[in-house]
């Protein structure tokens, strides 16, 4: 059976080298004059060919990665134009004939990596610098990422680490089938030796990969095409419930590999105004002074700018796709969401539109996502009293979260029957984002929460990880009151983001929590002396209390006031934040499955509560399978 399933993985591959070469017009072409064929993998320089060959294999799976992960979640809905393959994913009726059910695309990446790992010398130096070890570690990280995706999609899959270059290796194989947890057990110990390693840059800050038909040139960062070892280790450990190891690796990444000083893409509030940022619509009902919110976000820090043409500020890893069909592997994702990335100027369908949007949109934001976005509280400063410079307090506006609105494009000219059309701009520039700094921070919050540090998890939502969390005021009291002494101690020792060595990396004046990306003035403003601090209604006790009531009502369970009750409530808050922050990025179903497993292992509300919780989340999709049975979370393997 295994032979039949994976036999095609090797057909057409006379060794992995065939995938490592780039055509003269390919966007991942390298400009080496050393040789045009058969690059030497044992040389110091030519491994770039093989690295980019692996990235080409990643391009082959990009669309499937997003669609399989997103269609089975609850954040998108189908339209009259949606193809049957997507519909089958959405209602869990997909069979092995489904276009997007292909393990092959992941094994293609794995086999490329296996070939590189077996053949690449790791003792190549220029002076005292090892010139290959970062790339070697990064290739192992990509292989681990591919196996992680297979473990999420399928219940058990064939596992091998040898390069398959001959049919005889398939015919005579005895590859074991492993679950996600078993693959993590197999791969993680080897990756541990590379913790703290950054990814290769090849000495390049960016590459010009061509010009799309409708806009200026596109540049990619080679550094962002790889996945840091500590990020993938954090993901593997989080997926399998090893929260301590997950937290430690996320922190290693944030402090040792790519230190950050703030969480980017925030939405600063002004006193009054007439707009709510690009494309956003605000309902000002309930605002006590009758003023309007102005979420006037600079284009340099706009949250939606994460997905921009050449943006890398928040992006850790992405898969950049070709800018034209002549330049390499293209993506269907922009068109599925209503944007023809590859249209020529003559093919633009909307009069008055600079960009080629189309009416045949296959996926739209779901009603559930709109409800969550609209019901999220938005916080703003009230108008100061006459003659005063300080804002009096922070109030709640019924205008919802701004993130969904900021990535929806509203046409300037539409037909009468298309008035309410909105196009999702996440994939307008042909990049598939895998990891962001925000991903690491929120997944760190998830790990902290399950470690019992729910107050630290909330800090990531509210104020960000900041030196303000450990600062004393003039009276010798901590300025942050919602953190326990135990959590504060752990942040300085066990999980040393705020240790004496690392605290400078997280200056309080620059920090804001992830929830501020779309919900306004949720942070405490502890370090901004021109405002009265600590007045935001977004508090741990209040928000966790509201979530506890929601859980009790929705699932009919007895929610108490224990620590485990709080952990479950904060976890549901994180689940909502994932929806608002990561919608359409391809990770929703996997986030739901992982959180459901956490809840099943917890047993606070019963041994199968997580599965019931997930099934309830997806009930409006009317799935054809019983999702309270974990076996039905997986696609059939082919």
Quick take:
A hairpin with a 2-residue loop joins β2 (about 125) and β3 (about 130).
Descriptive report:
By secondary structure, this protein is mainly alpha-helical. About 13% of the residues have low confidence.
Key terms:
single chain; 638 residues; mainly alpha; Serine Threonine Protein Phosphatase 5, Tetratricopeptide repeat; two-stranded antiparallel ribbon; two-stranded antiparallel sheet; 21 helices; 7% strand
In whole angstroms, the N-to-C terminal distance is: 10 Å
Q: Count the strands?
A: 14
Structural class: mainly alpha
Shape: globular
> Which architecture of one domain does the CATH hierarchy give at level 2?
Alpha Horseshoe
Strand content: 5-15%
Number of separate helices: 21
Lateral arrangement of strands in the main beta sheet: 1-9
Mean pLDDT: 82
Q: Identify low-pLDDT runs.
A: 8-25, 30-38, 261-301, 349-353, 412-419
Helix amount: 25-40%
Report the top-level CATH class of one domain. Mainly Alpha
Query: What Rg is obtained from the alpha carbons, in whole angstroms?
Result: 25 Å
- CATH topology of one domain, what is it called? Serine Threonine Protein Phosphatase 5, Tetratricopeptide repeat
Major β-sheet annotation: 2 strands, antiparallel
Question: Topology of this structure?
Answer:
Layout: H1 2-6, H2 17-20, H3 47-71, E1 76-78, H4 84-90, H5 104-119, E2 125-126, E3 129-130, H6 133-153, E4 157-158, H7 167-171, E5 177-178, H8 180-192, E6 207-208, E7 219-220, H9 229-239, H10 243-257, E8 315-320, H11 333-336, E9 363-365, H12 367-375, E10 378-381, E11 394-397, H13 403-406, E12 408-409, E13 423-424, E14 431-436, H14 437-450, H15 454-462, H16 485-492, H17 516-519, H18 540-555, H19 563-582, H20 588-602, H21 609-617
Helix pairs in contact: 3-5, 3-6, 5-6, 6-8, 6-9, 8-9, 9-10, 9-14, 10-14, 14-15, 14-19, 15-19, 18-19, 19-20, 20-21
């Amino acid at each position: 059976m295994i032979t039949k399933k994976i036999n095609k993985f090797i057909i057409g591959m006379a060794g992995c080298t065939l995938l490592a070469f780039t055509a003269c017009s390919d966007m991942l072409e390298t400009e080496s004059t050393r040789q045009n064929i058969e690059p030497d993998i044992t040389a110091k320089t030519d491994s770039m060919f093989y690295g980019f060959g692996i990235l080409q294999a990643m391009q082959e799976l990009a669309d499937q990665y997003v669609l399989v992960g997103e269609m089975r979640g609850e954040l998108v809905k189908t339209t009259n134009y949606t193809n049957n393959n997507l519909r089958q994913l959405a209602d869990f009726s997909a069979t092995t004939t489904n276009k997007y059910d292909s393990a092959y695309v992941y094994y293609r990446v794995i086999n490329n990596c296996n070939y590189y790992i077996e053949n690449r010398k790791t003792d190549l130096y220029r002076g005292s610098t090892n010139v290959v070890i970062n790339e070697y570690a990064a290739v192992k990280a990509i292989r681990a990422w591919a196996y992680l995706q297979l473990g999420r999609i399928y219940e058990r899959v064939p596992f091998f680490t040898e390069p398959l270059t001959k049919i005889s290796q398939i015919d005579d194989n005895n590859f074991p089938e492993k679950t996600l947890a078993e693959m993590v057990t197999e791969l993680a110990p080897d990756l541990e030796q590379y913790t703290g390693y950054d990814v290769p840059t090849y000495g390049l800050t960016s590459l010009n990969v061509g010009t799309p038909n409708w806009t200026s040139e596109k540049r990619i960062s080679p550094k962002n095409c790889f996945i840091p070892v500590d990020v993938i280790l954090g993901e593997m450990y989080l997926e399998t419930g090893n929260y301590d190891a997950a937290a430690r690796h996320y922190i290693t990444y944030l402090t040792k590999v790519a230190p950050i000083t703030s969480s980017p893409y925030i939405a600063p509030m002004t006193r009054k105004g007439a707009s709510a940022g690009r494309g956003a619509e605000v309902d000002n009902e309930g605002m006590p002074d009758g003023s309007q919110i102005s979420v006037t976000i600079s284009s340099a820090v706009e949250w939606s700018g994460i997905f921009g043409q050449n943006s890398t500020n928040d992006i850790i890893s992405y898969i950049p796709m070709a800018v034209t069909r002549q330049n390499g592997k293209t993506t269907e994702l922009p068109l599925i969401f209503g944007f023809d990335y590859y249209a020529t100027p003559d093919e633009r369908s909307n009069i008055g539109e600079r960009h080629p949007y189309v009416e045949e949109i296959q996926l739209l934001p779901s009603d559930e996502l709109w409800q969550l976005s609209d019901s999220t509280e938005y916080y703003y400063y009230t108008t100061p009293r006459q003659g005063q410079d300080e804002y009096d307090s922070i109030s709640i506006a019924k205008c919802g979260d701004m993130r969904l609105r900021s990535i929806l494009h509203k046409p300037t000219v539409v037909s009468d029957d298309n008035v309410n059309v909105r196009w999702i701009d996440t994939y307008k520039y042909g990049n598939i984002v895998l990891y962001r700094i925000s991903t690491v921070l929120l997944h760190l919050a998830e790990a902290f929460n399950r470690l019992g540090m729910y107050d630290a998890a909330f800090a990531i939502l509210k104020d960000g990880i900041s030196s303000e969390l450990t600062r004393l005021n003039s009276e010798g009291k901590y300025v942050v009151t919602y953190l326990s002494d135990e959590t504060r101690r752990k942040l300085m020792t066990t999980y040393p983001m705020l240790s004496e060595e690392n605290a400078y990396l997280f200056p309080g004046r620059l920090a804001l929590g992830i929830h501020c990306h779309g919900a306004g003035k949720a942070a405490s403003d502890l370090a901004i002396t021109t405002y009265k601090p600590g007045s935001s209604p977004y508090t741990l006790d209040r928000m966790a209390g509201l979530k506890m009531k929601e859980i009790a009502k929705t699932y009919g369970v007895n929610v108490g006031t224990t620590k485990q009750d709080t952990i479950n409530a904060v976890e549901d808050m994180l689940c909502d934040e994932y929806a608002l922050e990561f919608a359409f990025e391809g990770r929703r179903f996997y986030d739901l499955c992982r959180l459901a497993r956490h809840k099943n292992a917890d047993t606070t509300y019963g041994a199968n509560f997580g599965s019931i919780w997930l099934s309830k989340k997806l009930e409006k999709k009317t799935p054809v399978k019983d999702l309270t049975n974990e076996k039905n979370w997986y696609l059939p393997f082919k």
